[in-house]
Specification:
The protein is α+β, with helices and mostly antiparallel strands. It is built from eight helices and eight strands, in the order αααααββββααββββα.
Length: 263
């Protein structure tokens, strides 16, 4: 019974995307021309074509420090073609009719890895490259981060256990509610049971946590990840489930659960 409950909790709480789906999701946020332009600009930086690259920066970034900065960035990355270049982040924004894109790539050279970001304004007084950043990595980022239990803190375990218990409580209340006969406004009770209030979340990789008072969390628990990011486990207060199950203590009604049909 316990194994079945944990399996069901894992199915509902630890909802995940495959690595392929995660990559496809990212690419949907950047058009082919967006990706082509970002790669061309990054490759200009890598090849040291700074006379060609510097004028493409927006007027607000044109300064005496621009070229020395680009030279340092160019020197950071090894020459030659990377073993793999992967789009790991894409963001498109429209502000006052101006479209801007922000794309992030992971460069894999086999023994060295880098994250390179390129942001671009397509029009307006600040048209051109509005940002280019490069950061070395200790190892390659994964499309689907690992979810492990080894070496975690008591807070990690506490949030995970609370999420599983909250989900179990919601499922018990939901099943009892659906089976209860003659329950007034049953569909409202179902909706009330399904949502949790407030939210406590923990980043499974960094251990950073956050609490939101005004939040609605479906099933009172979740565990999701961002591609090339971290798992985030969240738990909410299953207020609807607690109120429904607590009715028996307040009113002491006779059980009205429907009996399963027998053949």
């Amino acid at each position: 019974m316990l194994r079945a409950l944990l399996a069901l909790a894992a199915t509902l709480v630890l909802t995940q995307l495959s690595g392929c789906d995660a990559q496809q999701t990212i690419e949907k946020f950047a058009t082919a021309p967006d990706r082509k332009r970002a790669v061309e600009l990054i490759e200009m930086m890598r090849a040291g074509k700074l006379d060609e690259l510097a004028p493409k920066f927006s007027p607000s970034l044109q300064s005496p420090e621009l070229r020395p900065t680009l030279e340092k960035m160019s020197a950071m990355m090894p020459p030659g073609e990377p073993r793999q270049r992967t789009l790991i982040g894409a963001y498109t924004n429209y502000t006052n009719g101006v479209r801007s894109t922000n794309l992030t790539y992971q460069y894999d050279f086999g023994d060295r890895w880098f994250v390179v970001n390129c942001a671009y304004n397509e029009s307006g007084p600040d048209a051109g490259i509005i940002g280019m950043v490069i950061n070395p990595l200790a190892g390659p980022l994964k499309a689907q981060p690992e979810f492990g239990l080894r070496g975690k803190t008591p807070l990690h375990y506490g949030v995970l256990v609370a999420a599983v218990l909250a989900l179990a409580l919601v499922l018990v209340a939901l099943i009892r509610c659906i089976r209860e006969r003659d329950l007034p406004k049953k569909w409202l009770w179902v909706l009330f049971i399904l949502v949790g209030v407030a939210q406590f979340s923990i980043d499974w990789t960094t251990g950073q946590w956050q609490f939101n008072y005004f939040w609605v969390l479906l099933f009172s628990a979740s565990a999701v990840f961002q591609p090339y990011g971290s798992w985030v486990v969240s738990v909410g207060l299953p207020a609807g489930a607690l109120v429904y199950l607590g009715r028996g203590f307040w009113n002491h009604p006779r059980s009205r659960l429907s009996k399963p049909a027998t053949s």
